[in-house]
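agent: user wants the structure for DUF7313 domain-containing protein from Halobaculum halobium. delegating to structure tool.
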Amino acid sequence: MLPSPLEFLVPLGALESVADVLPFAILAVVLVNVVTRLLAQRSYVQAAADGDDDEAMSRYLPHETANVLLVVLSFAFMIVEPHGGMVLSILVIGMVISDFFEYESRRVEARNNLEIDRPNSALVASVLVIAYAGYQALFFVIQPLWSAIV
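agent: tool returned. relaying C-alpha cells verbatim.
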C-alpha cells in the first residue's frame, strides 16, 4: 500500500483513530470559545474603565488559545471529513477574523472614551459555528427524521 501524500505532513492513522470524537471536541471547544469571549469582553470593559487609553487593554489569552485550538481542530476535521470540515473551517476562520477586528474596535472605543460595545459580529459568527458544529456532532439525533425526508 502506497502512503498518502498527506502521510508525511499529518499522521493519518492517528487522526483516523480520533475521527469519531473530533466533532464532539470541536463542539466543546466552540462552547468554551463563547465563554472565553464573554470573559474577554468583561476584561475589556474593566480595562477601559481602569485606564484612560487603550494601553491597559490586551488580548485575552484564554480566548486566543481557544481560537487557535478551534482552527487546528477544524483543519484536522477537514482531513477526516472533507466537505463538512471545509464548511466548518470557513466558518471558524470567519469567526476568528471577526474576533480580530472586534478587539481592534474595542481598542478604538477605549482610546476615544466611548462606551465599550458588545462584539456583535463575533457573536453572530459564533452562533453560526455552534449551529454547524452541533449539526456535525449531533446529527445522529435527527438522522432518522432526516433519512425519512431525504
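agent: one observation worth passing along. The longest helix spans residues 82-111.
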